[in-house]
Amino acid sequence: TVAWSPLNNHRGLLACGTVANAIDDSFETTADLEVFTVDFAAGSPNQMTTKGGVVKSQERFHQLAWGGVPVAASGAVPTLSHGILAGGMVDGSIGLWNPAIITKEVEGEALLSSAKKHKGPVRGLDFNIFKPNLLASGATESEILIWDLTAPNTPNVYTPGQATHPVMDITCVAWNPKVEHILASTGSSGTSVVWDLRQKRPVISFTDSATKTSRSALAWNPEIATQVIVASDDDTTPILQMWDLRNAHAPAKTLQGHTRGILGLSWCPNDSSMLLTCGKDSRTLCWNPNDSSIMCELPASANWNFDVRWSPKLPAILSTSSFDGTVQVYSLTDTGNGQSGGAVQAPGWLKRPAGAAFGFGGQLATFAKPPADQPGVRPTVKVHKIVTEPDFLAKADELDTAVTAGALKGFCESKIETCGDADAAEEWRFMHILFESDARRRLMNHVGFNADTISEEVLALKLEDLKLDQAQPSP
Q: Residues 434-443: pLDDT tens digits?
């Protein structure tokens, strides 16, 4: 089983632990924990290299999780610069390791502590991304524990609430990526539960009455706080069900594509339209959960892939773990074509992270995505006022105020008095006349034509005064 580093400055590190319930040809029963570095530079060999040494473990791993630097421990234990590695063991214990020591960055004992608080194997393990000192674990008999790793050598342990019924083996726990005090769990009975750590009780539970089969994995939508997806490892119903907690009476959507039970799933933290699954049919699929289509498929493995993980800090990079002891790292460029109707799309991390557009009146609108290390911050749109020509902008504001107030006549009068140029003043007088009630008559008078005088002169004309062409006699 594997865990990617959640830290930007160590994002190429991948921890690997010997998985439980699997054995090789030599019947080796030892358990190892290693940290590998993945080099994506052009021309680098397609092999992961060990960074540091190998740490022996007394028990094998069901689950491995890598958390960030504990908030309160950053000052007390400066050696935790690489965060904390946690392992869910076969015997019900939780082991905590310092990856900085495993990678030989600092000296000391790699094992920080080991505590056996569960009665059975620990299959569910997840760190809180908002508070890296909080670790959730799940095991048999519906037992869920919260570990406070402020002091990792002596962690505090408490429960999120009273155990749910029916009693089941917990197979997966997951913190909500949008709300820090919400935790979800699922298990062998087919029931999934959402916990509120502030109220210290379950707030909702859901199950599909038509398919009460074991659930192997669970994941939250990285963008919508109320959406969660669960996977079934039953060979008769190898399905994915998306639930919207705003109406948890029935699944909002069902995804079908595997021919045997699903063992692992991972929702891309950088693009909610990409979901990875792996199952007993040796297939690893990438879905678009929005339209239930299969976008692409990874190369088939010789044995079951029981775990699949997106890298939290390396977009387009993912890993798979197989029961034959193989861990493989892929890029989306390694995938094949999707099924008919499953269109391959551009991933979300290729979208513009920021942009700007100019508007009228010296206004500039900008947008930007929140930093990756601040998952709780929403995207922002701001409007700025850019002043490059203050005099011009002041005149534009003055005109805009006059238009809004319907005072254009007064605006023209002020311009006649202040323009200081005879030709410009004459132009403003013409403009001023246009806003008079009898603009036509006043405009004629202004250019030297009086309508009354013209009428009198026309009436005073005699017929002989009119110079008409004499008609020529016909031949």
A: 888 887 777 7
Q: Which residues pair with 174 in a beta bridge?
A: 184
What is the rounded distance in angstroms from the CA atom of residue 86 to the CA atom of residue 3? 9
Cα–Cα distance, 77 to 161 (Å, whole number): 30
Distances (CA, A) of 67 to 128, 130, 324: 8, 10, 27
Query: pLDDT tens-digit profile of 378-422?
Result: 778 899 887 777 787 788 888 888 888 888 888 888 888 888 788
- 371 versus 355: the higher-pLDDT residue is 355
Query: Is the CB of residue 84 less than 8 Å from the CB of residue 98?
Result: yes
385 three-state secondary structure: strand
Q: C-alpha distances in angstroms, 176 versus 222, 228, 269, 377?
A: 8, 9, 12, 14
**Residue 63, number of CB atoms within 10 A of its CB:** 26
Instruction: Write out the two tokens for 174.
Output: 């997951």
Residue with tokens 């749910």: 164
| One-character DSSP codes across 85-133 | EEEEETTSEEEEE-HHHHTTSS-S-SEEEEEE--SS---EEEE-SS-TT
| Phi, psi of 240, deg, nearest 5 | -115, 135
Is the distance from CB of 118 to CB of 140 less than 8 angstroms?
Answer: yes
Contacts of 236 (CB under 8 A, 6+ apart): 213
Map residue 301 onto helix, strand or coil. Answer: coil
Answer yes or no: pTM beyond 0.85: no
Residues in CB range of 127: below 8 A, 6 or more apart: 6, 65, 66, 67, 68, 84, 86, 134, 135, 136, 175
Nearest to 91 by CA among 158, 139, 149, 159: 139
Distance CA 70, CA 343 (A): 41
If one counts every other C-beta atom within 10 angstroms of the C-beta of residue 91, the result is 15
Q: Which of 6, 9, 17 is nearest to 66 (CA)?
A: 6
Which residue, among 263, 240, 265, 268, has the nearest Cα to 253 in the 3D structure? 240
Per the model's pLDDT, the better-predicted residue between 128 and 457 turns out to be: 128
Task: Report how far apart the first and last C-alpha atoms of the chain are (Å, whole number).
Answer: 121
SS3 assignment, position 40:
coil
3-state helix, strand, coil in the chain (%, to 5): 20, 35, 50
